[in-house]
Amino acid sequence: MTETTVKRGPKSWDLKTGGWLLIDGVLAFVAMYSAYAFSPYFYTLVQSGRTPHLGQLRAAVAFAALIGVTSHIFGLHNPLLPRNFWPMIVRSLGSTLLAMGALALLVFAVLYQRIGRFILMQAVIYTPVLMALARVLIWRQSEQRRQRLLLVGAGRAGKLVRSLVRQSGLPFEVVAFVDNKPELIGQRIDNNTVLGAQQSLKEHCLDLQIDEVVTCIGGRISDDSMRQLMECLGLGVRVSDFANFVERNFFQVPVEDIRGEWFLQADLELTHPLYLGVKRGIDIATALAGLVLASPFVLLAAIAIKLESRGPVFYSQVRAGLHNQPFKIWKLRSMRADAEKDGPQWAEGADRRATRVGMVLRRTRLDEAPQFWNILRGEMSIVGPRPERPEFVEKLAAEIPFYNQRHLVKPGLTGWAQINYPYGASTDDALNKLKYDLYYIKHSSPGLDLQIILRTLGAMMKGSR
C-alpha cells in the first residue's frame, strides 16, 4: 500500500455511562413535555380555583432527573448487558414506572400539587419507547462501525482478549494476531489467523485497516517492537497494552497478567482526606437510615428464625478487614445452628445448610442488615470488597496473585465485584471477583460508589444475590 495513514470511518457510537445518562435525561424531558403538550385537559387543570398544577417545565426537569437514577437502578447504563431489544424495553418500562411513582409521591405528598393522570399515562408510554428506540439506533450504528483490533501476542493474554470481546457483544472486531513464534505463525485461533513478522506492525495496520493495536506480550517489550508501536501511533492507530485495554473496556483488572509494577503505575490515592471524609459521612448516614428502616423487618425475621429452628437469631463470624485486620461481622442467622460442625465451608448460592426462612433472608439480603452496625463502628463501608474469612484468605492468598491487596480498602456491604459477577464459591470465583475488586480500588470515587449502590438496589429488586 502507498497510503501513509489508515483510512478511518466515523468513530464508534458506543457510549459510556455519562453519555447514556444524558440521552435518557433528554428523552425523559421530551416525553414529559410532550405529554403536557398533547393533553387536552391541561388548560382546564391550570385554571384558577383548582389545586396548583405543577408546571410542564418543572415536571419535565424533575422527571428527567429521576429517570437518570432509576435507569441506573435497572442497569440500563451497563455497557456489558446483552443487547436484546425486549429485555431492554422491559428494563426501560420498569425504570419509567419507578421514576413516575417517585415523581407522583414528590408532587402529591410533598409539594401538594397536581399532574393530570392522562399526562402521567402518556409519559409512561412515551418514555420507554423513546429509550428503547434510542438504544436500537445506537447499537446498529456501533455494529456498523466496529473497532478493528490487532492483537500482538497469541498466547494466554491474547486469547483472553479474544474471549472477552466475543462474550461481551461490545463493538470490537479482532481482525488478526501477530506473533514471532514459528510454531504459532499460520495457525488459526477461532476465526483469526496468526500473522508473522514478515511485515511490520505498521504494514499490518495499513493492510487490515486497524483501529487499535493491543500488546498481549508478557514481560518487557523489545526496542524493535516499541519502535514499530510508535510507527502505529503515527498512523493515528490507538496503541494499548493488554491490562489497560481490559480495564478500560471490561471494568476489571487481569490479575493473572499484571506484575507488582501495576500498583505503582496506578498511583493509588487510598488516603485522600476529602474522599475518605465524604465516604465516611455517607457510610454513617446510610447505616443509620438502614438500621431505622430495616428494624421492623429484622424484628419479624427474628421471630420467624426462632419459630423455625433452634439457635440464636444473630450470627457472628470473624472476617478480614482493612489491612487484613480481623473483625467480627454480624448477620441474621440463615443456616442451621450446626451448619459448620465439620469446619469452615464456602457459602453457596443454593446452600443446603440454609433454613427456609434463611433462603428468603438471603434472597432479599435482609440477613446482611445487622452489618449496618459494623459500618457505624467503622469496621466496614457501604461499598468495598466483600470481607472474607481469614481461613479462606490464607488459602486464596497462596493461590491467587495479589489477593491480599484487596484489603487496601475497607470491606463493604456491597461492591463492584458483587454487581458484576454472580454468586460464587470456589477459587476461580475468588480470582474473577478479585479482578473487579482491584478495578474498584484503583477507580474508587463517590461517583463509582453511587453507581454501585444504585445497581445493588436494582439487584435487590430482582431478588438476585
Structure description:
This protein is α/β, with parallel strands linked by helices and 465 residues long. The protein has three domains: 17-143, no CATH class; 146-250, Rossmann fold, CATH 3.40.50; 273-462, no CATH class. 52% of the residues lie in helices and 10% in strands. The protein is built from 17 helices and ten strands. The strands form three sheets. It has a six-stranded mixed beta sheet, sandwiched between helices. A two-stranded antiparallel ribbon has the order 7-8. The chain has a two-stranded parallel sheet with strand order 9-10. α1 runs antiparallel to α5 (117-144), α3 packs across α4 and α3 (56-73) crosses α17. The protein is globular and about 75 Å long. The mean pLDDT is 87.
How would you briefly describe this protein structure?
52% of the residues lie in helices and 10% in strands. The chain has helices at 17-37, 42-45, 56-73, 85-110, 117-144, 156-168, 201-208, 223-234, 242-250, 261-265, 273-308, 356-364, 371-376, 390-399, 416-420, 427-443, 446-462, and strands at 147-152, 172-178, 188-189, 192-195, 212-215, 238-241, 314-320, 326-332, 381-383, 412-414.
**How many domain regions?**
3
The major β-sheet equals:
6 strands, mixed
Radius of gyration: 26 Å
Number of beta strands: 10
The succession of helices and strands, N to C, reads: HHHHHEHEEEHEHEHHHEEHHEHEHHH
Question: What strand order characterises the main sheet?
Answer: 3-4-2-1-5-6
Tell me the number of helical segments per DSSP (H or I, 4 or more residues long).
17
The average pLDDT value, as a whole number, equals 87
- Provide the low-confidence segments as ranges: none
Oligomeric form of this entry?
Answer: single chain
Span of the ends, CA to CA: 54 Å
Which secondary-structure class do the elements indicate?
A: alpha/beta
Global outline: globular
Question: Could you tell me the strand content as a percent range?
Answer: 5-15%
| Percent helix range | 40-55%
